[in-house]
Amino acid sequence: MSLKEKGFATRAIHNERHEAEYGALTFPIYQTSTIVFDSAEQGGRRFALEEGGYIYSRLGNPSTTYLQEKLACLEGTEAALVLSSGMGAIGTVFMTALNEGDHVISDKVIYGCTHSLFEHHLPRFGIEVSFVDLTNPEEVKAALKENTKIIYCETPANPTLKIIDLEWVAKFAKEHNLMSVVDNTVATPYCTRPKEFGIDVVVHSATKYLNGHGDVIAGAICGDADFILKCNLEGQKDITGSVMSPFDAFLINRGLKTLEVRMERHCANAQAVAEFLETHPAVAKVYYPGLKSHKDHEIAKKQMNDKYSGLMAFELKGGYDAAKNLANSVKVFKLAVSLGDCESLIQHPASMTHSPYSKEDRIAAGIDDGLLRASIGLENVEDIIEDLKVNLDKLI
Ligand code: LCS
Description:
Layout lengths: L7 H6 L26 H8 L14 H14 L3 E5 L2 H12 L5 E5 L4 H10 L6 E5 L4 H7 L4 E7 L11 H10 L3 E5 L4 H4 L9 E5 L13 E5 L1 H16 L5 H11 L2 H21 L3 E5 L9 H7 L7 E6 L2 H11 L4 E2 L9 E3 L11 H6 L6 E5 L5 H13 L3
Parallel strand pairs: 2-3, 2-4, 4-5, 5-6, 10-11
Antiparallel strand pairs: 1-7, 6-7, 8-9, 9-12, 11-12
Helix pairs in contact: 3-10, 4-9, 11-15
The chain binds ligand LCS.
The site of ligand LCS has 18 residues, from helix 4.
């Protein structure tokens, strides 16, 4: 039985590649920028891609290869590429796949800096992006153009936890010869493997759950071997130069070993917190795909394997002032952006992660001034709920 057929935790812990020289259990950190060739002939063969092996760490490094193999095995894709940030991964995909004159369809609820890339920067290179509601097929069909090349979304989306039906997106992409790209940062491959629904390319901010310990900025692209090689040898090598350091690859490899147990706890804690928030009189609305009240709970259930990750958003009846008071008074939660860490984190998307949106676009995406986003950590859930309860009670 190959590793690919084994369970999720086993695949997150093991790699068929071993350290050969001393038999070290933990794969070493190859902290080197360059690789010594045996001969000029060998160097030539490696540059010509006639022989495997390494050349220079902007092109690849044993520590990053080891992580890439694990991520591909977890996402169920042929290959993966790791990069120095989630934005590095997204930028590399777009700079590799697109040319001047191309068009992209994206859902309107996406991470703030991705929105900024699409709204302000791709157009500088002659690439146009239409923002639509991907849960509305008519709107998506109306946005389609002769030159549309990519359809893009996040699910669950940051920060409103909007759910997109991946099977529908993949089918639409195939019918119209588009590349489907999904940001799977929030779900992680533990909850959703977009490839299983026919999605072509998966991107990640590995800064979040994949690493899980709040000490690395990192990204990943998972997809077919040909496209990943193109991202590596064109987008990453020649355009973005977004390279992951061997030390960061080591940290993420270490983080991945506990991905399944961490995700189980994130999911269980978040479900309990969301259910508590729904009952509190100071709370107007909770957005969490694990709640039956979530508009697309049934789609989430199908594509998230009944596990809904650790991110949620909520609105308070007292609006923006109440949200600010809560964010300033909680103690177990840290007031910080990012998500997927051991610590519970709370932040205000309108002024923080989604401030790159214009106010008009932000409101159209459902990111209201009073919305708070919470990344539920791994603390004891009673302590998380108590922290919220004490401070929410003050708002009634
Ligand atoms: N994709 C998603 C869904 C994200 O949430 C982020 C960062 C990125 C891509 C970019 O990844 P990075 O370059 O930071 O590794 N999200 C953040 C957030 O919600 N708070 O701070 C960063």
